[in-house]
Amino acid sequence: MPVAERSGRLAALRRRLEALERTGRQDWAVLPFALPAIDRVLPGKGLALGTLHEVAGTGPEEEDGAVAAAFLGGILARLKPALPVLWCLAESDLYGPGLVALGLDTRRLVMAQARHQREVLWAMEEGLRTSALAAVIGELDVLSLPASRRLLLAAEASGVTGFALRRWRDGGRAAAQRLAPNAAQTRWRVKALPGDVADGEPGIGRARWQVELWRCRGGDVPTSWMVEACDATGHVSLAAALVDRPPAWQPTYRVG
User: Fold this and answer.
1) 152 CB contacts (<8 Å, ≥6 apart)?
2) Residue 31 DSSP SS3
C-alpha cells in the first residue's frame, strides 16, 4: 500500500475513533465551569467526573504549584460539597486560607503527607477506591502511563474524581516529565498573569490566570483562555478585556 494511502487511512481511522470516544462520553457526569468558552470544548460540556485529570503550573510555578492548586481549589469547592476531599501531599505547604478564599471549606480536607512519590500514588489509589470521597488529589513529580492507568481504573470504578497536581523540583525534571504520556482525561496548565486594575492601580484587583487545556480525550485542543481567578464560589470568569472577543491562543508548550 502506498505511503500516502496508508497515512490517509490512518488519519481517517483516528478521526473515527475520536468521534466514537466523544459520542460515548456524552452521558458522563460532568462539573460545568459555567463559562461557555471553556465548557463547549469539553466532552459533555463540563469537566468529566469519575476519571483522572492532570493540572500543573508553568515556568517557575511548576515547582510550587500554587496557581495550579488554586485552580483545583475552585473546582473542589463546587464538587460534591457534602463529601470530604483527600489531598495527598508531597510537601507540607498547602495554604488553607487561600483555599477558603476560593470557596473550599477546609473542614472537608483529609490530608495525607507521604515521604516518597510511591506513597503518594498508593494513597491516591486507595482513596479512589472508596465512594465516600468527593475527590482525590495527589502532588506528583513522576506519573508513568501504567500508574496513571491504575488511578484511572480506580476512579472509574468508584465514581470518585482524581487530580494529579504535577510539581517538579528543577527544570530538568520538568522537561523530562512535562509531555510524558499518561492516561489523564484532561491535562491543564495554569499560570498567573498581571492582575486587574483597581482604583487606577494595576496589580491589586482580581488576579488573572492563563488557563490552557492542551490535552483532552475526545475534545478540541489545544485551547487557552485568559480568565479572572476563582471567586468565593469557586468559579472563574472570562477576563473583562476579553468578554466581547475570543482570546487568541498562545501555546505554552509544543505538543509533539
Assistant:
1) 51, 52, 162, 183, 184, 185
2) strand
Cα 156-159-161 angle, rounded to 5 deg: 85
Copy the grid coordinates of residue 222: 489545544
Tens digit of each residue's pLDDT (9 = 90 or more) over 121-166: 999 999 999 999 999 999 999 999 999 999 999 999 999 999 999 9
The three-class DSSP label of residue 13 is: helix
SS3 146: helix
Full set of structural domains in the chain with CATH: 38-242 (3.40.50.300)
Residue closest to 253 by CA, chosen among 54, 89, 12: 54
Which DSSP helix (H) or strand (E) runs through 74?
Answer: helix 66-78
Secondary structure class of 198 (helix, strand, coil): strand
C-beta neighbour count of 15 within 10 angstroms: 10
CA-CA distance, 193 to 209, in Å (whole number)?
A: 5
* CB distance 133 to 85 below 8 Å: yes
Question: Of how many residues is the chain composed?
Answer: 256
Residue 53's identity, in one-letter code, is: H
The answer to whether residue 97 scores a pLDDT higher than 60 is yes
Contact (Cβ atoms closer than 8 angstroms) between residue 84 and residue 133: yes
Strand ranges for 61-206 from DSSP E: 85-89, 109-113, 135-140, 161-166, 186-193, 197-198, 201-202
Instruction: Determine contact, residues 81/108, Cβ cutoff 8 Å.
Output: yes
Sheet harboring 223-228: ordered strands across?
A: 109-113, 85-89, 135-140, 161-166, 52-56, 186-193, 208-216, 223-228, 237-238
